[in-house]
Design a protein that fits this description.
The protein folds into four domains: 42 residues, no CATH class; 86 residues, no CATH class; 210 residues, Orthogonal Bundle (MetI-like fold); 100 residues. The protein is built from 18 helices and two strands. The protein has a two-stranded antiparallel sheet with strand order 1-2. The N terminus and C terminus are likely disordered.
Length: 516
């Protein structure tokens, strides 16, 4: 029962009902309010606060001040830990163990310092970044040390011009560096590697295309054999060529036999690397080419191989680097000579790796200097071949150098001019027609040669509907009667001077029906 106060004119229990409705509606409205309003009303504002905090992306690149300080601090602390363990606290010794301990301590301390500011994912990312940079720096330092040490030990022989133009036929171990050279070894290396490339490149690329384009049981068998041959010892390849070419066929030791042995070593490397590169070509390119009606061989020649050209050049370089440094196959199949021989089919021939081996095994300092100089020349030769292969291979798919970009721009301008001339008004592509009385040749409008309407000709009038015969049901007016107040529908007006052919062969007027 509601008691009404006569003085105030309002029920006494109205505030109670109002407070009850407010308490029931407050939890539903609190999540939609602001955090400040929720805090003022005393309700929990967890979801609202979580939604109000923006997501800040984590920085995964670049150099920061805290990161640099953490790296140097962890490096100094790791070095100090290694010094304490190897000098004071533990009976450790050895340079390798010292550096390994210092590096592991550095990684652990760097993870701890990074964890003070970042979360676990950022710590793992920073530690792996340091590990990868360390591995790259170690590989670069090793390569620099090898190249620098070889060039430094061969510095006595490299400045002499006769070292590149003479052979060792008239020089001995006790002769100075001004006598003799490695011209015979340089020429032999170039001839052998040229023969090996002439055999390996077409066979290797053809086999890689077969493995990539024709899948099946036999292709899987060939791929397994290729992968097994990548670990074939070089002496086995030399023995095979020696047994087949020299012993069974009776041929003499020559640069040609050495080229065969080197090609056996290079072939699986080129096939395996080229197969991996061809697998990276998008399948949509081949599908688009075949959808346009191109045969498989044209798709491979014009789409697949040009797309993978840069990777195929890298595959050839990997095989060349494997074959150019072989020594035992050359020794078994080409022999040894100190004279210059430019005929790969007649007489023994020597390569740079075999010359290096014979030079450095001598106790004379001059011969050792010649050996290190020959090794430096071998590395320079590999570098030159690599540059040539990169120039031939060009850039990756979709990338053009300046010359190719200029050529493409010129072709685009020529095409644009040709299209403009073809679409110029008044340009006549067909010179057909009969000559008029005034001597001028009447030529048809553009587009009339193939049945297309002329752009200057007027649009043809629509053909009239045939008149129905008398008594035909179609002649009756089937048009619904117009409603009250609506105008009656009218048909289209009859065109002027329009005729149609009569059934008896005569002409009748469409309007009057009179025969002529």
């Amino acid at each position: 029962m509601t008691v009404v106060d006569l003085e105030k004119g309002a029920p006494e229990d109205a505030p109670q009902h109002t407070s009850q409705h407010t308490s029931q509606d407050a939890p539903q409205a609190s999540p939609q309010g602001t955090p400040g309003e929720a805090a003022a009303e005393g309700t929990p504002a967890g979801p609202a606060v979580a939604a109000a905090v923006p997501d800040v992306p984590r920085r995964i690149g670049g150099v920061t001040r805290s990161g640099v300080l953490s790296v140097f601090g962890a490096a100094a602390s790791g070095l100090c830990v290694a010094v304490l363990l190897f000098g004071e606290l533990a009976p450790f010794s050895g340079a390798l163990g010292f550096f390994v301990t210092a590096y592991l301590s550095f990684l652990g301390l760097y993870a701890v310092l990074t964890g003070l500011e970042e979360d676990g994912q950022a710590v793992r990312d920073r530690v792996m970044t340091v590990v990868l940079w360390s591995a790259g720096g170690l590989m670069f330092a090793a390569l620099t040390m090898v190249v620098g040490f070889t060039a430094w030990r061969g510095r006595e022989a490299l400045p002499h011009a006769n070292f590149f133009t003479q052979d060792m036929q008239a020089a001995g171990p006790l002769d100075p560096l001004t006598d003799g050279g490695i011209a015979h070894a340089m020429l032999g290396t170039l001839i052998m590697i040229a023969i090996a490339l002439a055999i390996t490149v077409p066979l290797g690329l053809a086999c890689a295309v077969y493995l990539n384009q024709i899948p099946g049981r036999f292709s899987r068998f060939v791929r397994t054999i290729v992968e097994a041959m990548t670990a074939l010892p070089s002496i086995v390849a030399g023995l095979m060529v020696y047994a087949v070419w020299i012993l069974n066929l009776g041929m003499q030791k020559s640069g040609l036999a050495a080229g065969f042995a080197i090609s056996v070593m290079m072939l699986p490397i080129v096939i395996r690397a080229a197969d991996v590169v061809l697998r990276l070509v998008p399948g949509t390119l081949t599908e688009a080419s075949e959808a346009l009606g191109a045969p498989r061989w044209r798709t491979v020649w014009h789409v697949v191989l040009p797309t993978a050209r840069s990777g195929l050049a890298t595959a050839v370089i990997l095989g060349t680097a494997r074959g150019i440094g072989e020594t035992s196959p050359v020794l078994l199949t080409a022999g040894f000579t100190a004279a210059l021989n430019a005929d790969p089919t007649n007489g023994p021939m020597i390569s740079l790796p075999l010359a290096v081996f014979n030079f450095v095994k001598s106790p004379e300092p001059t011969m050792i200097a010649r050996g290190f100089g020959a090794a430096a020349v071998l590395m320079a030769l590999v570098l030159v071949l690599f540059v040539i292969a990169r120039v031939i291979g060009g850039r990756g798919p979709g990338h053009q150098n300046k010359r190719q970009a200029r050529r493409a721009a010129r072709a685009s301008r020529r095409d644009a001019r040709r299209f403009t001339e073809l679409h110029t008004p008044g340009l006549e592509l067909f010179a057909t027609g009969s000559s008029g009385t005034d001597g001028d040749t009447e030529r048809p409008e553009r587009g009339t040669g193939n049945g297309a309407p002329s752009p200057h000709a007027p649009a043809p009038a629509p053909a009239p509907a045939p008149a129905p015969a008398d008594g035909d049901p179609a002649s009756r007016d089937n048009t619904p009667a117009p409603a009250d107040g609506d105008p009656a529908p009218q048909g289209p007006p009859a065109p002027d001077n329009e005729t149609r052919t009569g059934g008896a062969g005569g002409n009748s007027d469409a309007a009057t029906g009179d025969a002529h």
